[in-house]
What we know:
This protein is an all-alpha fold. 65% of the residues lie in helices and 0% in strands. The chain contains seven helices and no strands. It starts with a helix and ends in a 12-residue tail after the last helix.
Amino acid sequence: MQALYQMDIGQIGRDAVLTDGEGTLPVIDGEDARPTSADRGFFRAIVIGVVDDQRRLDRVVAEILEKDWPLYRIDSTLRAIFRAAAYELMARGDIPARVVIAEYVDVAGAFFGDEERRLANGVLDALARKVRPDDFAAPAEEA
């Protein structure tokens, strides 16, 4: 998300963010943990996927937002969150939609207060239900 933010505000290009970002992936679950090759691969996939498909991702997110709040008016950190989550929801069917929502709502909570966290939850829930409705279908009753 931070890499996408840097690119959005024009500080750094994709190749530089991939090189710099892989070495500085945040440690989440322990002080002495180091990013694995899977972490690096996932990081690269998100950055490349968002950059390569940004117009389509932005269109899908914009359809969810209220007409009075187009995507360009959204804070650039939230915009990066929405783009990364949209990429995961649309391209990574191996990750459950509810997990994507929860992870990115947590990221929003790390940067913002309750109002923005609720906004992120609402937008991402609506987005997930639109692009992955089967993840929210009620389970069929067994006969």
